Description:
The protein has four domains: about 5-85, no CATH class; about 90-320, Neutral Protease, domain 2 (Orthogonal Bundle); about 325-460, no CATH class; about 470-565, Macroglobulin (MG2) domain (Immunoglobulin-like, Sandwich). The protein is of the alpha+beta class. It is globular and about 80 Å long. The chain is built from twelve helices and 25 strands.
Amino acid sequence: MKLLILTLVFILSLNSYAQEFTVHQLDSLYHLFARINNVETVNENKQNTGEVTEIIKCGLDLVTTIKRNLNNFSPDQQNLLSKILDRSVRQVSVVSPGGFFRVHYDTLGGNRVGYDINLFLQALDSSYNFEVNYLGYQAPPQDGSQGGDGKYDVYVQDLFNTYGYTTPEQNVGVSNWTSYINIDNDFGTDFYTHGIDAARVTAAHEFHHAIQMGSYAPIDPSEPYRNNDRWFYEITSTAFEEFVFDYVNDYYAYMPHYFNNPSKSIVRFTSGVDAYDLAIWNIYVQKNFGFDIIKSQWDRIPTMSAIKSIALSFIDDSTNLGNELNKFGIWCYFTGNRNIFPDEYFEEADEYPMLVSTADMDFNSLSQVYNMTVNPAANYFLNIDLLPTSENLFTIITNSDWQKVIDNYTQSLDFSFTVFNDSSAGNKTINEYYSVTFNRENQQYWNNAGILNNEVVYGDTAYNIPELESETFAYPTPYKKSSAGKIRFAFQSYLIKGDEVNLNIYSSGLEIMYSGNPSIRASYLKNSNKYCEVIIDGSEINFATGVYIYVIKSGDQIWKGKLVIFND
């Protein structure tokens, strides 16, 4: 990508509720907004701009900041900004085949569309059908006669190195704002994705912003979106690019920013790439819990912060933020060249970057204490080379205290991690040579998982593994059909990954309900015993609510247990 000459991006990381912008900062915002709309400003001061390395994916943050602070600009600046904010008049307008959108575009001149307008209309309809008709989000409210009628308006224009943005207009209900979308006219070579594919994902991205402000706007203060939650707006809209147009993958461009620094809190208070690089968090959530949980988070947004909404949604699903953030860290570990379990973690993990550890340490003694700090709602990735045996331990430490995020997201929380060259000296045994102890305050908000030589060997509650002494168990229990997730069967065994077992599931009347030959996908030590694990997709279990009996067989060995199904 070419360097984009823009305003100082840090300005948009300021909380515009909490403080006023300086004249210099307002000047920079003014020049930036004019620049991305290809409007020349008089006596532009080059010192008001700075270089950043990323193209603006979405201008929502910028346009809402401009609108919130419009009266603070100089009279001349207000005049020009108001003209830019006015809906542009294009040469042609056409209604999408589905009838919800009216697209305004030019066939001649600098704003001429450079991709197939009919394919773009189809992309808008696809976004509407998926996000509204299929998932059940409320459609954005009608805007009266703006744009010629009550249909949702999309304006195609030549934007300077910007994919698009959604402009909020009028408050028409408790949590309802009208809006319209501006989108680039050609998506040329400077963009990561070009032409119609870039237009497709921008349609999905910006339309979800229209949904967010249209029916899920905060009540107090009455604003089209909550400034401190803009990270959640952007990671959701970016994830919806993947949900609606799975084959485009524009979000790949932003992933290295997270994978190179994965210890940052999932709650982001800065602009730029920080707002897009964690779309995979919502991809992880959807793969494990389905789409409904993300919608349930948005249902709460009008009355609470995003991080609280996320935490409560997991509790509703019989888990918690710490479990899922820690497990998310494991998923992020098995990417790139580490994607040795292609069906277990991210579907497109081969295309993802390799995660860079937070700290790399050596261990070559009887015991070693590593003292570290982590931010709230964040993972810490500690990589330890066990030199005596040439093994590698990768441990993921998670803090999930979402209230501390709200109080002060930059605070550092202390923990220590101790490795022993003795399998029984620590709290957790990782193999016949080593054990570890994880020390921290307030256990409620901490999780820890360990990966030894690319194999998950322990996971606290990272996998919601029950604290049972039995030689076999199934989890989660009860399994909720609405979760659309996987069912795991663990049993004490020294079988190895890839070995097949026979799995049968019977009703209480001993009628066989399922029979298959899954292979062992994971193994780990728990309570000094080695457990193997097989996994089946919940979609294969179309059972009524009740208690079922499962039998796992390998040669002469047999393991039996109970599985509880709940159709909520």
